Amino acid sequence: MPSPDRSRLTLFISILVVFAVVLYVVSEITAMSPIALAPAYMFSPMIAGLVVCFRRDISLSAVGLRIGRVRWLAVAAVVALPLVGVTLLIAVAVPGVGFDPAANPTPGLGLPSGILGVVATFGLVLGLGATVNAVFAFGEEFGWRGYLLWELAPWGFWKASAAIGALWGVWHAPVIVAGYNYPSFPVIGVVAMTIACLSFSPVYTYLVIRSESVLAAALLHGVFNGSAGLVIAYAVADNTVLSELVASPVGVAGVIAFALAAVGIALSGTPSLTREFAHDTARSA
């Protein structure tokens, strides 16, 4: 199998850097927080990936822009919910973190109380996560788990997942420093977000390989972003260290939940990663 092409990687990363600089410049000129501009920034990996694919004659279907295996797309959409559930269980098990059963994770919406409310909340999270959120998530995922996964496939499942996770985490730096996810810890937050992305990455890679489609990553990402608020709502911490760095979907609790999933992948048999991951010839059970 050919090695990753350095010139293509350099072009991809250079475009990401340009977008990060543009984000900062626009923020300064408009006096808007980078966080407010984040929805547009989310599409920079997709644009970078498309530029590389079009300029270097790489088929979009080869990098996963296809429907793929519908059963695994459904798994990708749903699996974020148990992962968030495990994250919540880990969070409330930490001393200094409590569970607030009266919390309202959907303020402003008149959802029913009791079990019906829980079902309605999860249904809402799944519906919005797999549609609206997934569109924005695709702006990232075509770059990360589309082009870049294809490019780094010669490195194998774990090394490619780690490299993508590291770049994914660092890419968040402009909005993290501005107060996103870890408002009390903007600098430490960049490290925390990178660790979180490293822990998330194998699960994303696994689902893309199994589904033979980058859409799986967009679905998982969209639903996870939509359901992460459940942890924030129900897990009540005594201080900001616990609330932002520990009992958080992108804190220690989330890292442990996804790390456990990665261990499950390793124990069940790590799938082979090749540049044919989006081709029918790569199909596995």
From TrEMBL:
Q: What is the lineage of its organism?
A: Archaea, Methanobacteriati, Methanobacteriota, Stenosarchaea group, Halobacteria
Specify the CAAX prenyl protease 2/Lysostaphin resistance protein A-like domain's residue ranges: 130-226
Protein name per Swiss-Prot or TrEMBL = CAAX protease self-immunity
Please tell me whether the keyword Transmembrane helix is annotated for this protein. yes
Where exactly are the transmembrane stretches of this chain?
9-26, 32-52, 72-94, 114-136, 148-171, 183-207, 214-237, 249-267
Q: What GO molecular function terms would the record report?
A: endopeptidase activity
Which keywords annotate this record?
Hydrolase, Membrane, Protease, Transmembrane, Transmembrane helix
Q: Could you tell me which Pfam families the record lists for this protein? A: Rce1-like
Look up and give the organism this protein is from.
Answer: Halopenitus malekzadehii
Record-level GO BP terms: CAAX-box protein maturation; proteolysis
